[in-house]
Design goal:
GO terms for molecular function: (S)-2-hydroxyglutarate dehydrogenase activity. The protein is of the alpha+beta class. Helix content is about 30%, strand content about 25%. Strands 5, 6, 7, 13, 14, 15, 16, 17 and 18 form a nine-stranded mixed sheet that branches. Strands 1, 2, 9, 10, 11, 12, 19 and 20 form an eight-stranded mixed sheet that branches. Strands 3-8-4 form a three-stranded antiparallel sheet.
C-alpha cells in the first residue's frame, strides 16, 4: 500500500461486523476485549437487535450432548454453556440450570439413547441413564420407557444477552449492507441501503440468514447455500402448564439434522412445544403467508436443495404434515405427553433456522467459518450457536486480528 493509496482510503473503524444477532455482538465484544482501543462497529439491518434467530428460539442453553466429539459444536457448546452462565450471573440476566430429559418412547430408540449417553460422556457432559420409574420422578406426565438426564442444560433469554453485548459495543441499526468493495492491501468499503459508505481494515460477516449473500457481495464464493427452515411452536394453555415441569426432548433421528418436537418450560413458567422444521418461503418467512419470490426462486434453483430433499423426503413430508395439520402436530406431542389435546395447544411465534446446505445435498453439521483477504465469514451457525456465542466469538476474533497485523 502506497502513502497516496492510504490517504485516499480513510478508515471509519478497524473492523465492521455485519449482523446484530448474538454471535455478531459477542464477536464485537470479543474483539474489543482482545485488543482494547480497537474501533469496532456492528451493522444491523433491523431497527432492533436480535430480531431473528437470536430472539426467536426456545431459550435453551445446550449442554453439548448431540454433537460429534471433537467438533466445534461439541467443544464450543460445552465451554460456551459454562461461560454464558457466568456472563449472565455477572450481568444480572435471568438464567437457570434445570437440566433436561431425553426420553425414549419405544424399544427401538434405546440403542440410540445409550449411544447419546456415550457421546455425552466423550464430550465431557455429565449425564445419568434413568429407568421408567426414575424418569417419572422428574416428569410424571411424560410417557417413556427410559431417559437420559442431562445435568447441565440451562435456560436464559438470548435476546437479553444480545442487548447486554450491544451496550458494550458500538452498533448502527437500520444499516442494511447492500454492497461490499474489497480493496486488496487496504481493507473494505461497505455501502448501506441508506447510502452510507463505511471503510474498515477488516469485515466480519455474521449475517445469519443472509451470511452467504454477504460473502458473495464481498466477492467470496461461500461454497454452500443457506436454506431457511421455519420452526413452528405452540404453547400449552396456562391451566395445563403443570403437565411439564422442565425440559423434555425425544431421542433424535440420526438421519435427520433436527432434534424433533420437544417440551420446554420457560423461565416465565410458560410451556412451549416444538419446533418442527419446514422449508420457509422466504429467508425471514415466519409463516406460510410470507413469500419473497426472488428468495424462493434462489432456493429452488440450488441443486443442493433438491439433493437434500431426495435424501430426507420422508422426514420432510412428516414435518410438512405437522405444519399444515394441528391434529398431526398434536399426535407428535402425544408420544411424549399422552394427555395433551388439540385444544391445549395455542399458537406461538415461529423462528427460522439458517441451515447451510452443501452442493451434494448434505447439511453442514458443524459451525463453518471461512476467511479471505480482509474478511471472515460465519457461514453456518445455527443451534447451539447462541449457547456457544462466547467461544465462537473468541474464535472469530482471533481470526480477524490476524488480518489486522
Amino acid at each position: 500500500m502506497t502513502a497516496a493509496q492510504a490517504r485516499r482510503f480513510v478508515y471509519d473503524c478497524d473492523v465492521l461486523v455485519v449482523g446484530g444477532g448474538i454471535v455478531g455482538l459477542a464477536t464485537a465484544h470479543a474483539l474489543r476485549a482482545a485488543r482494547p482501543g480497537l474501533a469496532v462497529t456492528v451493522l444491523e439491518k433491523e431497527p432492533r437487535l436480535a430480531a431473528h434467530q437470536s430472539g426467536r428460539n426456545s431459550g435453551v442453553i445446550h449442554s453439548g450432548v448431540y454433537y460429534r466429539p471433537g467438533s466445534m459444536k461439541a467443544r464450543f457448546a460445552v465451554r460456551g454453556a459454562a461461560e454464558l452462565r457466568k456472563f449472565c450471573a455477572e450481568h444480572g440476566i435471568p438464567h437457570a440450570a434445570p437440566g433436561k430429559l431425553i426420553v425414549a418412547t419405544t424399544a427401538d430408540e434405546l440403542p440410540r439413547l445409550h449411544e447419546l449417553a456415550q457421546r455425552a460422556r466423550r464430550n465431557g457432559v455429565p449425564v445419568r441413564e434413568l429407568g421408567q420409574a426414575q424418569m417419572a420422578e422428574y416428569e410424571p406426565g411424560v410417557h417413556g420407557i427410559a431417559a437420559l438426564r442431562v445435568l447441565t442444560t440451562g435456560q436464559t433469554d438470548f435476546a437479553a444477552v444480545a442487548r447486554r453485548f450491544a451496550e458494550l459495543v458500538e452498533v448502527r441499526r437500520s444499516a442494511e449492507v447492500v454492497a461490499v468493495d474489497r480493496r486488496p492491501g487496504l481493507g473494505v468499503a461497505v455501502r448501506t441501503a441508506r447510502g452510507e459508505v463505511l471503510r474498515a481494515r477488516a469485515l466480519v460477516n455474521c449475517a445469519g440468514l443472509y451470511g452467504d449473500r454477504i460473502a458473495r457481495l464481498a466477492g467470496d464464493d461461500p461454497g454452500l447455500r443457506i436454506v431457511p427452515f421455519r420452526g413452528e411452536f405452540y404453547r400449552l394453555r396456562a391451566e395445563r402448564a403443570h403437565l411439564v415441569r422442565g425440559l423434555v426432548y425425544p431421542v433424535p433421528d440420526p438421519a435427520f439434522p433436527f432434534l424433533g418436537v420437544h417440551l420446554t418450560r420457560g423461565l416465565d413458567g410458560e410451556v412451549h412445544i416444538g419446533p418442527n422444521a419446514v422449508l420457509a418461503l422466504a429467508r425471514e418467512g415466519y409463516d406460510w403467508r410470507t413469500v419473497r419470490p426472488g428468495e424462493l426462486a434462489d432456493a429452488l434453483g440450488y441443486p443442493g436443495l433438491w439433493r437434500m430433499a431426495a435424501r430426507h423426503w420422508r422426514a420432510g413430508a412428516g414435518e410438512l404434515l405437522r405444519s399444515l395439520s394441528k391434529r398431526a402436530f398434536t399426535a407428535a406431542v402425544r408420544r411424549l405427553l399422552p394427555v395433551v389435546t388439540e385444544d391445549d395447544l395455542l399458537p406461538s411465534p415461529a423462528g427460522v433456522r439458517a441451515q447451510a446446505v452443501l452442493p451434494d445435498g448434505s447439511l453442514a453439521d458443524d459451525f463453518h467459518i471461512t476467511e479471505a483477504p480482509h474478511t471472515v465469514h460465519v457461514l453456518n451457525a445455527p443451534s447451539p450457536a447462541a449457547t456457544a456465542c462466547l467461544p465462537i466469538a473468541n474464535e472469530i476474533a482471533g481470526r480477524t486480528l490476524r488480518h489486522l497485523r
